[in-house]
Design goal:
single chain; about 475 residues; alpha/beta; TIM Barrel; Nucleotidyltransferase, domain 5; 5-stranded mixed β-sheet; about 35% helix; globular; binds FE(8)-S(7) cluster; binds iron/sulfur cluster; iron-sulfur; NifB_C; nitrogen fixation; MoaA_NifB_PqqE_Fe-S-bd_CS
Amino acid sequence: MREALSGGCSSSQCGSSDKPDSMPEEIWAKIKDHPCYSEEAHHYFARMHVAVAPACNIQCNYCNRKYDCANESRPGVVSEKLTPDQAQRKVITVANEVPQLSVLGIAGPGDACYDWKKTRETFGLISADIPDIKLCLSTNGLALPDHVDEIASMNIDHVTITINMVDPEIGVQIYPWIFYKNRRWTGLDASKILHERQMLGLEMLTERGILTKINSVMIPGVNDTHLLEVNRVVKEKGAFLHNIMPLISDPAHGTHYGLTGQRGPTPAELKALQDQLEGGAKLMRHCRQCRADAVGLLGEDRGQEFTLDQLAENVAYDPSRRVNYQTLVAEMRGEHEAAKRAASESLVDVQQAPSALVAIATKGGGRINQHFGHATEFQIYEISTHGIKFVGHRKTEQYCKGGWGEDATLDGVIAALEGVSAVLCGKIGDCPKESLAAAGIVATDDYALEWIEEGIGHWYEQVNGQQEQRQSA
Ligand code: CLF
Ligand code: SF4
């Protein structure tokens, strides 16, 4: 299981590299390098999950135990379950080779609090070796209240609780059973117990100053409209961020929802709900629904580079690459922030232009720096005369493989970019550019290597400047 809710990140506050005035210093220190709790940090910093917690104490209708925890993972078998010792070797190896690494998460493939001994041992081993790594866990909340004091004493600063309902009647449609106090509970009794434990766990974490994110899986016709109430309640109880995750449902996954035809939301339905929630608990919009063994920046997965058979038996932590990278990022973030401010200020000169969605191809670092044909996802920004904000991402199949682009793949990319006005990328060839133009999407590499917001602002000024000239001609 893993995350979601109030106080955090998709807002301009958490997207800033400058500490927001209203945010206490100690909270800023906790989120500024966490790729999930800060939208801006996800351009620079990576997380890794270690799959040490396979056991779970509830059944969700969107989960098949053969697969990753659907609450935070895209469906797919976890490559390897690890013992705490194996996890220790893996984290040290990754820390030596991936300088962006800032967070270690335990997010299943079962429940990190139910499988608590392994979670605790793993965090203990790794924080002794790499004291500055942030510890993060994700849970369904049922066993959470039993471990909050230990969580606090171990400096686990970030906890995600998956909360899909605050009304047990709705929970009945999501959870067929739970295992609690040595027996199995079903129906409304199960749902009530889970709800009460989730609320208690959230309150206990809030009392101790631990940042909580609430993950909610959006299930059309089951809890979609109810998530407004979930957002209100978790905000009231002190959640820091709310992450609305679209249900992933496919008969091939063997889940109850997959087999009974329960559909997930469309991107437009997800965005409409997120827009409705603006002003409530703060939203995370940059979640990638990672695997329980994901490694790397959000949106990339380098897990296959670090399988057990590739790890050395004895490996010692060398902090040099991470320290050098952190110094470099501190400098870059200042520049990035200045570019963002300049882009916002330049919008004042653009008169009465409509808002637009812009897709960005990026390899990270906050810049427009990826070849169109290499992108497996595009980051989506909304620009209007009021500002530029990150609103989500769209996954696609990579268009260019082995030096050739496939027409069928391009059709899929164009479909994924529905509603988008422009694609800004590091490089693009004439063929895809023409196909995108025929679909009404401008694609350009004119802003290659610019900061993302800077490039979007320049594109918007240019397009609307041209329109103004046409209107006055
Ligand atoms: Fe992992 Fe979750 Fe910690 Fe992040 S993921 S345990 S808070 S370190 Fe992040 Fe992945 Fe979304 Fe989770 S993008 S699924 S929100
Ligand atoms: Fe699956 Fe996570 Fe639900 Fe357990 S809590 S059933 S692992 S989705």
